[in-house]
Write a structure and sequence with these properties.
This protein has 256 residues and is α/β, with parallel strands linked by helices. 41% of the residues lie in helices and 23% in strands.
Amino acid sequence: MTTHSYASEHKDVAHAFEHKGLTHAEAHSKAHLKNTIIISQPDLKYSVFEHMSRRILKKAYSIMGKDIVFEAFPVERSIAVANAGITDGELARITGLQSSYLDLIEVPIPIAFDKVYAYSKEHDFTVDGWQSLKPYKVDHIFGFKLAEQKSKGLNATKVKTIEQGLNRLRAGRSDVFIGISGVDCLIRKNSYTDVKALMPHLDELIMYHYLHKRHKDLAEELGKVLLKMQETGEIALIQKQAKQEFLDQCEQRTES
């Protein structure tokens, strides 16, 4: 993504907070008065890594005496908003994105993980890495950075939402939809019994928190807090609890 596209995204999200009756400038002003950090996150209904990340960051920031508020945006826009400085940072993404989003700082302690699966309706084959998808028409969400990186050379199309991807799959407009493990919740919720996750899983996500460059000192302090939480096993414990909580909630939602 170029600097020009950052500016374009900034214009697109300038009214991000207005649904709450605040301009983004006013939102930040009020947040700073309350010692609150505003973090953007991808608007995914079912996500293990987001569940983990939110719980871990709430704990880490509370240790630092700060509150945290999460604002949901479409997947690509979420990180663009953080890079533009409209929010204070991005919840969690794969490593190395600061090379493309130049105004973000990666906090170098992994805080969450998830598995990536190839979902299909018509096809049933053993998944053996990304190249095993080469014969097929593949969809993934716009802004899903790992998929964008790994699907180069494949017949890949970007869609806006998981629902759109699954509907295209069921309509025969694609052969495979690439998604995280939480897609299973949406499949069960909508009784998409004709769609299945192919085995084994395609890849794994290891996720890191990002802060806007104006928070360089905060990023360093947060890194130390997260490192201590990692060393004491607290991060692993929260991850385990968050994953189980997510699975329980997923079952409750799909039963309704």
